[in-house]
Write a structure and sequence with these properties.
- With 339 residues, the chain is an alpha/beta fold.
- The chain is 27% helix and 26% strand.
- The protein has two domains: 8-132 and 307-336, Alpha-Beta Complex (Quinone Oxidoreductase, Chain A, domain 1); 134-282, NAD(P)-binding Rossmann-like Domain (Rossmann fold).
- It has helices spanning 56-61, 134-144, 161-172, 185-194, 208-215, 229-238, 251-256, 267-271, 288-300, 317-326; strands spanning 8-14, 28-34, 42-51, 81-88, 98-101, 108-112, 117-119, 152-155, 177-182, 199-202, 220-225, 239-247, 275-278, 308-312, 332-336.
- Strands 3, 4, 5, 6, 7, 14 and 15 form a seven-stranded mixed sheet that branches. Strands 10-9-8-11-12-13 form a six-stranded parallel sheet, sandwiched between helices.
- It is globular, with a radius of gyration of 20 Å.
- The two termini are 21 Å apart.
- Bound molecules: NADP nicotinamide-adenine-dinucleotide phosphate.
Length: 339
């Protein structure tokens, strides 16, 4: 091994599985572990940034029926990360390549070459921008909700990582009116003043149904739902006939560690012939190239705002994950893994 492939690196492991509650920092363990030398066909990557995603709380809780494996006790957690290839025995990747992959929550990642996807170093303003959630927003609007020009769109958790992309992309795709909900007056102002939403409201300033009706006097055609619960039920009431709801997230459940009460009586769904469709970004990876080109163009033209919060160091990551779901940040939150 040479100087850039140290013998040990830090990783975060799940130490305790919380039972019916949100995790505490003591449920995580920061451990210094050996960095294995890559076997033939493997690469060793020095991680630069990793993503924080509220969905990680469900993997910590070990909920069943998710489209990805839960975190196992005593093992390193995983998640989206971007890093630099340090050593490669795979002919497709070379030392110095910038790659995105799923082996976050650790300083060094070792895996099969095929588990790492090379990205252009200069394509985006920062390597951390490759951890954005624009693709899920784009796929949700285009493929799942079938957004058409002129339609009214409602986005819940609109000041968050996915919601801030969904609202802005809806506008860029020709939505007629874009409405968002968020959890503080500052975030509401952020939506209308910085992200150019037409209307926004504080979901604590309830009932949500009344706030949404005021913001959408002509109804909603497309709902991009990150939350569930009261916000989803309000959206169903305010949707226009043949409206489409793309169910992207479950923040109500993720932030409370309690089951969501769900959409309620479905008679309205029937009467208005609504579509409610859950989806994951993994079903839409064929859009990666197309979205990447659009995103770069929108950034170059100043047509889209992509705000990043950077948390320093793996040791701060567990608390930052809890703060994220507690509403501390706007835009996308990542952890810097190098000093
Ligand atoms: N389907 C997919 O493939 C896919 C991909 C990525 C993410 N997701 C999911 O999409 C959702 C959004 O992800 P993200 O990374 O963009 O997170 P995010 O919206 O940035 O999450 C943090 C925000 O959640 C909001 N929040 C927390 N509890 C809430 C509650 N009970 N009611 C309303 N808002 C609440 C807070 O905003 P306020 O202060 O505004 O309340 C907080 O700032 C998550 O559920 C995530 O798991 C799905």
């Amino acid at each position: 091994m040479n100087a850039i492939t140290p013998r040990t690196g830090f990783e975060v492991r799940l130490a305790t599985r919380p039972d019916g509650r949100l995790p505490l920092p003591s449920d995580f363990a920061l451990v210094e572990a050996p960095v294995p030398a890559p076997a033939p066909g493997e690469v060793l990557v020095r991680n630069l940034y990793m993503s924080l995603d509220p969905g990680m709380l469900m993997l910590i809780a070990g909920e069943s029926g998710l489209p990805m494996p839960r975190y196992e006790l005593g093992e390193a957690m995983y998640g989206d990360a971007v890093g630099e290839v340090a050593v490669s025995t795979d002919p497709v990747l070379a030392a110095g390549d910038l790659v995105v992959h799923r082996l976050g929550w650790r300083e060094f990642a070792v895996g099969r070459g095929g588990d790492f996807r090379r990205v252009e170093r200069d394509a985006l303003p920062s390597p951390a921008a490759h951890l954005g959630v624009g693709l899920v927003a784009y796929a949700g609007l285009v493929d799942v909700a079938g957004l058409r020009p002129g339609e009214t769109v409602f986005v819940s958790s609109a000041a968050g990582a996915t919601g801030s992309m969904a609202g802005q992309i809806a506008r860029l795709l020709g939505a007629g009116r874009v409405i968002g909900s968020a959890g503080t007056p500052e975030k509401v102002a952020y939506l209308t003043e910085r992200l150019d939403f037409d209307a926004a409201f504080d979901h604590h300033d309830g009932p949500v149904l009344d706030r949404l009706r005021e913001a959408a006097p002509d109804g909603v055609d497309v709902c991009f739902d990150n939350v569930g619960g009261e916000q989803l039920r309000a959206a169903i009431e305010v949707m226009n006939v043949h409206g489409r709801i793309a169910v992207c997230g479950a923040l109500n459940r993720q932030s409370t560690a309690r089951p969501d009460e769900g959409p309620g009586d479905l008679l309205t769904v029937l009467a208005k012939r609504l579509t409610i469709r859950g989806f994951t970004v993994w079903d839409h990876l064929e859009r990666t190239g197309e979205f990447g080109t659009l995103f770069r163009r929108w950034l170059d033209e100043g047509a889209i705002v992509h705000d990043l919060n950077v948390i320093d160091g793996l040791a701060a990551a567990p608390q930052a994950l809890l703060d994220l779901v507690g509403g501390a940040y706007r835009g996308k939150t990542v952890v810097r893994l190098t000093s």
